[in-house]
Amino acid sequence: MDMQSDFDRLLFFEHARKTAEAAYAKDPLDADNLTRWGGALLELSQFQTVPDSKKMILDAISKLEEALMVSPNRHDTLWCLGNAHTSHAFLTPDQDEAKEYFNKATLYFQQAVDEEPSNELYQKSLEVAAKVLLYHFFCQLMFAPRCLCFTWLVF
């Protein structure tokens, strides 16, 4: 993606976030709005530093869980929660902690498939979630080669 596209996405999702925040003040029980707000926060998290991204993802999870309290079977909210937990897991270097987030993601993807079985995107998300922990492990190896080399030299 080019910088203009990234900037356009940033503006679009920031506008969506602000619109959802204003709508929440008028109707805090609007599950559709809470889902849009959580989704916007999740998209905006991609433009942040890792610590800020994690915080924004946790805010998104909070909004999405709030949406599920209002409407427990919303398949789009469940799917979005799966994505939020997956995103958080990839920003978590500790394998055991990341595994917890991946497991939560898998549960939400499964619930989304249960609610909307014909949705191919939900099915694919569930399928990929089963393989993602191994991918996370290899990503951690790739992004920390100096640490591993040092460890191998010490032992």
TrEMBL record:
Transmembrane ranges, per UniProt, are: 132-154
Per its UniProt record, what Pfam families does this chain match? TOM20_plant
| InterPro entries assigned to the protein according to its UniProt record, in alphabetical order | TOM20_imprt_rcpt, TPR-like_helical_dom_sf
Which compartment or compartments is the protein found in?
Answer: Mitochondrion outer membrane
What keywords are annotated for this sequence in UniProt?
Membrane, Mitochondrion, Mitochondrion outer membrane, Protein transport, Transmembrane, Transmembrane helix, Transport
Please give, as recorded in its UniProt entry, the membrane topology of this protein.
Answer: Single-pass membrane protein
One GO BP annotation of this record? protein insertion into mitochondrial outer membrane
In the UniProt record, which is one GO cellular component term? mitochondrial outer membrane translocase complex
Q: Which family does it belong to?
A: Belongs to the Tom20 family.
Q: What does this protein do?
A: Central component of the receptor complex responsible for the recognition and translocation of cytosolically synthesized mitochondrial preproteins. Together with TOM22 functions as the transit peptide receptor at the surface of the mitochondrion outer membrane and facilitates the movement of preproteins into the translocation pore.
Q: What is this protein called?
A: Mitochondrial import receptor subunit TOM20
Q: What is the lineage of its organism?
A: Eukaryota, Viridiplantae, Streptophyta, Embryophyta, Tracheophyta
